[in-house]
Amino acid sequence: MKSFVYNGQAGRVVFGAGSLQYLGREIEALGAHKALVLSTPEQRASAEMIADLLGPRAAGIFDRAVMHVPVETAREARALARQLGADCAVAIGGGSTTGLGKAIALDSGLPILAIPTTYAGSEMTPIYGITEAGMKKTGKDARVLPRTVIYDPELTLGLPVGMSVTSGINAIAHAAEGLYATDANPIMDLMAKEGIAALGRALPVIAQSPVRAEPVEAVLQARSDALYGAWLCGTVLGNVGMALHHKLCHTLGGSFNLPHAETHTIVLPHALAYNAAAAPQAMQHIAEALNGSSAAQAVFDLAKNNGAPVALGDVGMKEADLDRACDIAMQNQYPNPRPLERDAIRQLLQDAFEGARPRK
Ligand SMILES: NC(=O)c1ccc[n+]([C@@H]2O[C@H](COP(=O)([O-])OP(=O)(O)OC[C@H]3O[C@@H](n4cnc5c(N)ncnc54)[C@H](O)[C@@H]3O)[C@@H](O)[C@H]2O)c1
After folding, report:
1. 173 C-alpha vs ligand 1 centroid, how far in Å?
2. pLDDT tens per residue, range 57-68
3. Does residue 95's CB lie within 6 angstroms of at least one atom of ligand 1?
């Protein structure tokens, strides 16, 4: 076994169907008394449900979380927390809402309790992103890591099927790249393999659930598996470095405004195909976790067979922009198992644009 550094990050996880009932206990365990509840406008009803559950421990609701965390929004939320005397924040939602909580924590040190309702995994990472004057700055700071995370699969039952599949493959991308990270370690490898396998099992059941009218128990089981997988994959993202796939997705999301989870879903098979020969063991682990013979094809099939988009052309990318995307992706490269070769990256983007099934 090669030498490694493992840096365990503290964080309490309360997992299971119905675990939201422990919210009050968990706020108390943080030593907090008044929580500002954060959500997107779309999840206002969930925020109200949380505030009702908190009763006198609810300081108020801030329901204006949006993608990419504009600095003005973070400042407003922080000012409201101060004005209401909140001594913690509860973020219910996906990566955008957790991201708002992180931006508040970065400056104020306010403890965050996260209740994830997608599979993005932000709640398990010390990575934050804030957008100022149109530029997204990202950084790492231990202060932004949520102190407690309540994973309650019942809260994900309403996540639309399409978003569930793309969000789940977004999570798989964290684990897949973690397996060939330059700072990979055997603990994260275990989590990555288990996380990919849990999501690989769960997503087809979730995708079929409205059609086949699965018994509720089977759907809840699949939702539990998916959230468990998302937790593990998010932990991998928070612990080891990402590579070509994440660089491409940051480029496409940041410079071309493509949707986050869909972009991850479309690009991942092609990034894996690009790296396949340079990271054979990681590929074998990914393929085995998905019961396939090729990592790239298994991820592509998981997306396509479950109704997710597979072509960048279908989510707003223009073919005329592929050269520029390639140029941006070649700058400030992340470490990657295979060196970045311009012609091959351009071909990768073309394949992703067209939605071609990887050949290997
Ligand atoms: N810092 C990190 O470590 C990290 C990790 C992953 C993602 N992110 C960031 O998170 C953002 C993407 O997060 P996301 O993919 O979770 O999307 P999101 O948080 O933007 O959510 C998308 C939409 O789905 C809604 N939604 C969430 N859960 C729902 C549910 N259960 N039922 C119905 N609607 C629901 C939200 O309210 C929102 O309207 C990106 O900005 C990305 O950069 C950050």
Report:
1. 15
2. 999 999 999 999
3. yes
